[in-house]
Amino acid sequence: MTRSREMWLAGAFAVLLLATAAVGPLVVDARPAFEIPVEAGTEDENLDNVTAAAWTEVPAASVSLSTSGSSVPAADDITVEQTSVQAVQTDQRLYLRLSWPDPSVDRSTRAIRSFADAVAVQFPENTSARPPIAMGGSGNLVNVWYWSADNTTQELLAGGPGSTSRFAESTLVTDATHADGRWRVVLSRSLEASTGNRTAIPSDADMDVALAVWNGSNMERSGQKSVSEWHYLALGPGPQGPPYQTILWIVAGLAIVGSALVTIEGVRRTRGD
């Protein structure tokens, strides 16, 4: 083996090892963008309780929030920039647990310019289509699960901004606590669509979801809120692991091949000598 070929092989092997070392830690735990993982659960885990022990075993996704783009006064003045989301699906219900930082507890709306902390979760009514994110559209409705710290829980239907109406009978169950400077809220509902225009939650396909948070002490209400882009609940079978893991295995495989080539050439050279 020539000196130049030996140096080339050694250099290639070093590059492959460096690529594996650099890329591996970054992608081994990577998750597809906008995915919220969903764990399988059982009804006996008491998941409607926001402090249930079972929630400590459920992975959380961090969801970034920004302004809603609304034209209401002070729409850009928001304080919550991220929320944590955990999701569990049982044979009967979907449970979502949201957590976000808020140093104050704002429950009352009785005083002038007094607003309650609140959170909302938005789903397409038709899960096969993605509606406009600002409360859907006239031909593409959304369901909204809404909780407010003034003890308000509502299931809403909307077909665009300003079109929100309540379902006659809410089937939404909520629980909340504020501790260590954070709100933690659980919202759950049956998987079945009990009435028309109510979202049927699939068990074999991903489902779009968007979030909104209001900080009452910042006088946030209506369109003045922190909102997310569309994300999706990983309810479908999906690929077995994120695509980044495939890249990692390719890089690792190339490193092994490079190592083998250098070893073989080294043995040949020794025998030749």
List keywords for this structure.
six-stranded mixed β-sheet; single chain; 2 helices; nine-stranded mixed β-sheet; 15 strands; Immunoglobulin-like; 273 residues; alpha+beta; globular
Q: Say what the CATH topology of the largest domain is.
A: Immunoglobulin-like
- Specify Rg, calculated over alpha carbons: 25 Å
Separation of the first and last Cα atoms: 10 Å
Shape: globular
CATH architecture of the largest domain: Sandwich
Q: How much beta, percentage-wise?
A: 25-35%
Say how many strands there are.
Answer: 15
CATH class group of the largest domain: Mainly Beta
DSSP helical segment count: 2
Biggest sheet descriptor = 9 strands, mixed
Task: Characterize the structure shown.
Helix 1 packs antiparallel against helix 2. It is built from two helices and 15 strands. The chain is an alpha+beta fold and 273 residues long. The protein has helices spanning 3-27, 243-272; strands spanning 35-37, 39-40, 61-64, 66-67, 82-89, 93-101, 118-124, 142-148, 152-158, 165-166, 173-179, 182-190, 207-214, 226-227, 231-234. Strands 1, 4, 7, 8, 9, 10, 13, 14 and 15 form a nine-stranded mixed sheet that branches. Strands 2, 3, 5, 6, 11 and 12 form a six-stranded mixed sheet that branches. The chain folds into two domains: 3-27 and 254-272, no CATH class; 35-234, Sandwich (Immunoglobulin-like). It is globular, with a radius of gyration of 25 Å. 20% of the residues lie in helices and 30% in strands. The longest helix has 30 residues, at 243-272.
